[in-house]
Amino acid sequence: MEQTLELKPGNRRLVADRLRDFIVTSIDSAAPSDMPFTHLVLDRVFPDDIYALMLANMPEVLDYRPMHGRSQGHDLSDGTHTRVKIDLFPEYIRHLPPQKRAVWDLVGRALCCRAVKQAFIRRLAAPLERRFGARYAKIGMYPIPILTRDIPGYLITPHTDTRWKGITVQLYLPGDHSNTHIGTIFHERLSDGSLPKRKQMSFAPNSGYAFAVGTDTWHSADPVGPEVRTRDSILLTYFVDAGALRFLRNRGKRFGNFILNEVRNRLP
Predict the structure, then answer these.
(1) Which residues constitute the domain of residue 58?
(2) Using 50, 70 and 90 to split pLDDT, how confident is the model at 6?
(3) pTM (2 decimals)?
């Protein structure tokens, strides 16, 4: 298969529209599950040819920057970051070579489009309504798509996502089925405070999951072992965008990260 993507003026919109519609169809056909909390099991999220292009055009190690938050506490003893990322916004990927930039710009724009957001809201209506009430569909949601890379030593302990977030989506990007055992683990919180493992997602090519963030959405990741070279995925997070504080926070963080990224790219 040809591993280049020609986005000429005549076909750029056609490719983007096709990708958007394919993702929406994948969300609409995703299998629902309520164990141990409501979530969607996604399969074949991207068209096969686009998925192959994504794998063939992965950024280089130096293109990523450290992922902060919970993962920051799991750096290796020599300071190596076990999770790094690239925000899939035009201003972040503009330093990539043209072919890689074209692929990831296409993917990032598709994931941020209104139709994809509406599809997730539609499929996760019940847990969103439990949290936000009858007007859940009108609550603003600000999408942040990031390409992440985990290496051996990465782990994350059981947690529920911050309430700044409305929907969490993770799309797995392995090249084959050799490491299906490193998918995200879902937990149930019992009355005694324990968090037994109830389900583990399969880290399979072109798959993933999505859930509406709630007080019961406990999840974790076991340590990535030495048998794994990289654990690549896309985290698509919809931040609650209701009210002036959240509106300014979401855009302020994006602008601040852009400035930091520009400084980083200018350092020797």
Answers:
(1) 12-266
(2) low
(3) 0.90
